[in-house]
Amino acid sequence: MSNTHPCKLVVIIAEQALEGPLARDVMALGAHGYTVADVRGWGAHGARSGAWEADKSIRMEILCDEATSLAITRHVEEQYFRHYAMVAFVADVGVLRPQKFVR
Asked: Hey, which residues does 10 pair with through a beta bridge?
């Protein structure tokens, strides 16, 4: 028996310039909060080393219920994917204190 509760983890990796707009969007779409970290890596758009301002990336993580995860991923896909180097994915996770993350 586990003491965790099912939840969705939405992860968005995007250009740092999108942090403000993404933060406003995910909160408006029902998230209770989010965590952001600076990241770097390699992908279809080449290296993102973060060596200069326009080359920096962020990783935004949102713990939420399934409906909110769908709203966020649909919005990001429709509003951002065509114009920005970014990726998003969703994972099933178990959380403690579920009232902090789901409605």
From this structure: 62, 90
Give the containing element (helix H, strand E) for 27: helix 19-28
Q: pLDDT truncated to tens, each residue of the chain (103 aa)?
A: 578 999 999 999 999 999 999 999 999 999 999 999 999 877 666 555 544 456 689 999 999 999 999 999 999 999 999 999 899 999 999 999 888 776 6
Q: pTM for this one?
A: 0.86
Q: What is the CATH number of the domain that holds 23?
A: 3.30.70.120
Domain that holds residue 86: 5-100
Looking at the structure of the chain, the number of domains it has is 1
